[in-house]
């Protein structure tokens, strides 16, 4: 049980861990001392409970844990359906009156809630699927098939499980290992919790993300390549120093991290930068820009590594892996030049399309890899893995990012659920800048923005305002309290209740406790406002959460403001899942590691669409894919107004 001890240390200090459990015997496999194994799932449930007992970094943040399993494990079917069955139990507990909150008793009671689960899928499985063949499950002790199941059935189970509860995710094992820079040290078997760091067992890396918006001029619409390259150089050096400063949970992890010196440089706010530039996220131009910036980042990081190697020497395991590293470097360069001369790849990636990439970015991307390969020929490399794209979740807010990692915006206006309880309202700050760049006048911009986010005040609101409420008997202090609360309100009705106003106020207005304690009590209706009046006031105060239908905004510009989800009650547009996947495919050929990203699908998405997304990701040479169908879990951390209203009603 040394693994649980090491995981506990990792969680305690705020880090995450990923493990491939495929070496554990399947249930009913024979033990060397007699008897039969209790199986994989029993061990996974122990680890899940251990992770649930430890708050990451000693705070309210949950432990970050990835559980991977090879697709040929004897218990793959149970693993795939694990969370599906547990979600059914959660639903039953919620129906019995337990809280649906993710930190509540219902979710704490069931297993499997403290990890992300992923299956490791080789190319051979997709071949079996295409041919309508069977898939063998292999015993862990003798290496022989213990069961053969139709590949299509397993594919259906995986897709249904992802549709029902967002797990398991997919990790494309063949592609991952074909881009492996150090196979002499072993295979890549797993990833970190968010799937961006993929390397040898018992290794680790520190992450850093650069805010792309800081290098983009919203007036000239030009990306500062030189400044970005300088930032990449500085942060490569900083991360290299951090390897020496880091503390590790075990001797093995410390030793291999020193031997291989893996880094995790990435970026954030790509989605917001594209919006400000007036470029739709789901467009060829956006993908060309995303690919070129990623190429510049990784090429610059490796060039910096080569320069450092001249002074410090290479990482310890360089010579035995040199030919593999140079092959992978050449493949990065081929992608920059959109050249199909890839080496050692069954599935070739999409390079930068010169038809859609601004000339200065394309030139910088190609030059970054010319410079890198020239340096490597003469100086070798000090660290082997330099770049990933991390999720930059809550930390992205501290970085002043509207969008995380490589993501588009989740919604123009959204509500972040805090682990310790409560919500706060997040509004995309790039919308006004984008509108200016599209030529809108200031009064038009103000009208469009207020249409989306609302005025957040009673002042000037139709029907429900300072004057009308004062006439109903509200005091000045109560009105000021209401007005202040509207800044974070989902809907105005959420502010008009006994918890916000207090019983003294409601009693003075003539209501008894049995009235305002009823779950059906609506104060605004009770004091005489009609549903239509409430709806009109709500739209003015809290906004529509979308720009669709906004005054002055041209329909031809709607796609620039498309988000991962439909926005608000009125919004109908959203970025198709293929748009997410294609953006990932544009960046992946230029990354040492992988991409942490959630592919968002609407609630009405089908199981067939899940299959389509997973298969497209494989065909476009992604290393991993995680899907989330809106509302598929009974509790989720990031919501639009549409979801919250559905949940409360």
From TrEMBL:
It is an enzyme of class 1 (oxidoreductase). Its EC number is 1.17.4.1. The keyword Kinase does not apply. The keyword Disulfide bond applies. Residues 5-465, 531-628 form the Ribonucleotide reductase large subunit C-terminal domain. Signal peptide: none annotated. Gene3D superfamilies: 3.20.70.20. Belongs to the ribonucleoside diphosphate reductase class-2 family. This is ribonucleoside-diphosphate reductase. It comes from Daphnia sinensis.
